[in-house]
Amino acid sequence: MMIGTAQLLSLVIGIVLPVVVAAVTRYAASDAIRAVVLAALAGTTAVLTEWGRAVAAGDAFAWQVSAFAALGTFIVAVSTYFGLWKPTGVAEAVKLVPAGFVGGRHAAKGKD
């Protein structure tokens, strides 16, 4: 089986998913919750990329390809978390950014 553009895109998105999970869950969530959120986002990414490929090509949606891509995306996400984002401190730094921090200003301060 050859990896297509949609599956490759899904795997590339898997590289940044751990940072997204860290930003969404912050310190309030346990590691188990973070793992479930990561798996759900990996599955969603795989389904959406396969759906986009199927629509663009005029083919039927292949759930087997989507399931394989979800597994690959999850593996890439976990690997990059433990191999890149955690050792460099990026995942922890993202958790420290205050909730509502947008565009260099804290959203709770209001508009000036």
Quick rundown:
The chain is mainly α and 112 residues long.
Structural summary, described in words:
72% of the residues lie in helices and 4% in strands. The mean pLDDT is 85. The protein has 112 residues and is mainly alpha-helical. It has a two-stranded antiparallel ribbon. Strand 1 and strand 2 (105-106) form a beta hairpin. It has helices at residues 5-25, 31-57, 63-88, 90-96; strands spanning 101-102, 105-106. It contains 4 helices and 2 strands. The radius of gyration is 16 Å and the shape is elongated.
**Could you state the order of secondary-structure elements as H and E?**
HHHHEE
Number of strands: 2
- Largest sheet report: 2 strands, antiparallel
Number of helices: 4
Shape: elongated
Helix content: over 70%
Give unreliable regions as ranges.
Answer: none
Strand proportion, as a percent range, falls in under 5%
What structural class do helix, strand and pairing data support?
A: mainly alpha
Question: Cα distance, first to last residue?
Answer: 56 Å
The strands making up the biggest β-sheet line up spatially as: 1-2
Output mean pLDDT.
85
Which value, in Å, is the CA radius of gyration? 16 Å
What keywords describe this structure?
single chain; 112 residues; mainly alpha
Question: How is this fold's topology laid out?
Answer:
Elements: H1 5-25, H2 31-57, H3 63-88, H4 90-96, E1 101-102, E2 105-106
Helix pairs in contact: 1-2, 1-3, 1-4, 2-3
